[in-house]
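User: I've been trying to design a sequence by hand for this structure and keep getting stuck. Would you show me what you'd pick, starting by listing the structure so we're on the same page?

Assistant: Good idea, let's start from the same input. This is the structure you sent:
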């Protein structure tokens, strides 16, 4: 990834990459849906992020175009499996959300159709497929989160250090207190194990993951669930994206979040499923979701780190240059290696 290019165009100070691209009245925006009538046309989406986010985007797109929008919320792995199963008779037009490695896999398997959106120029090239199979909307970063109340009451009095590094998760005090997404079903889970293997190397990476697995009490189908259950105090520690942990904390269930060194990351993309039935409206939705107006919704409802510098960043987030990301993370490799890695991780 060309990080010098990213840093050169990122906003200064606290400015982060933003979640959408262009804006309703932005002169740089082209191909927006303003004034385009799609009344009577239908759009069906598989959505692999928050339902509230998808609902707001759907309602605004319908208001702007008149199109009838419906969506089904599915974890990343389930969405990919469904799209593959429906390849010969597709039932959806758009895949929104999930992780870029899964979209790259779908594109490689011939499940997505390339579309060169006129608004693509508003998304940094590092966060979109060069052939137009998918476009990143916002950046997700892996983090270690822990329930502040439970830690202060149950662990701190015993002299236990707060879990903030990957090695901390292997402490015997935390066995059975960790929850993370299942990499077979969740893009978040796959991002975690794939980034560990790429960053540490196969030998050290597998040694770490095999030591971590017995520490984990539950593997969840959804990447958001670990944050919810940790916030509720069912578990002390969660491993998932920091934006999900922040959403839980903002509702009053305080999670202390740490982006650990060389953290894995991904983008949440939008891609066009191969389906000619609603071709016009599907392309119009991609144009729309890349606008600043849609980007504002994405940032406000997800707290995601952004893919476009024109949208205001999430409050309190650090600038991109200060995030300890694993800069060499290969999203395409993560998608290609998923089955092999999952089989090894779960002992198949």
């Amino acid at each position: 990834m060309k990080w010098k290019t990213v840093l050169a165009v990122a906003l200064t100070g606290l400015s982060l990459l933003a979640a959408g691209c262009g804006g309703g009245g932005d002169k740089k925006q082209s191909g927006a849906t303003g004034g385009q009538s799609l009344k009577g046309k239908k759009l069906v989406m598989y959505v692999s992020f928050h339902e509230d986010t998808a609902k707001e985007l759907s309602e605004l797109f319908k208001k702007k175009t008149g199109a009838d929008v419906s969506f089904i919320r599915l974890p990343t792995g389930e969405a990919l499996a469904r799209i593959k199963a429906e390849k010969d008779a597709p039932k959806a037009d758009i895949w929104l959300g999930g992780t870029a490695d899964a979209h790259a896999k779908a594109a490689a398997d011939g499940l997505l159709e390339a579309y060169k959106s006129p608004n693509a120029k508003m998304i940094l090239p590092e966060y979109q497929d060069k052939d137009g199979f998918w476009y990143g909307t916002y950046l997700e970063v892996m983090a270690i989160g822990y329930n502040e109340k439970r830690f202060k009451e149950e662990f701190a009095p015993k002299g236990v250090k707060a879990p903030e590094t990957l090695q901390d998760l292997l402490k015997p005090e935390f066995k059975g207190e960790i929850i993370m997404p299942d990499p077979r079903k969740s893009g978040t889970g796959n991002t975690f194990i794939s980034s560990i293997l790429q960053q540490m190397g196969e030998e050290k990476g597998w040694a770490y993951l095999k030591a971590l697995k017995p520490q984990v009490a539950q593997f969840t189908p959804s990447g958001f669930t670990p944050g919810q259950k940790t916030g509720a105090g069912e578990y002390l520690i969660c491993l998932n994206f920091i934006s999900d942990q922040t959403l839980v904390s903002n509702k009053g269930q305080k999670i202390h979040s740490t982006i650990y060194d060389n953290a894995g990351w991904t983008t949440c993309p939008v891609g066009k499923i191969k389906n000619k039935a609603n071709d016009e409206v599907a392309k119009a939705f991609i144009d729309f979701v890349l606008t600043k107006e849609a980007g504002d919704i994405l940032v406000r409802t997800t707290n995601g780190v952004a893919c476009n510098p024109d949208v205001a960043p999430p409050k309190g987030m650090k600038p991109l240059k200060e995030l300890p990301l694993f800069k060499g993370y290969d999203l395409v490799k993560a998608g290609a290696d998923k089955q092999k890695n999952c089989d090894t991780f779960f002992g198949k």
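That's my pick for every position. To get oriented when you compare it with your attempt: The first strand starts at residue 42 and ends at 48. The mean pLDDT is 88.
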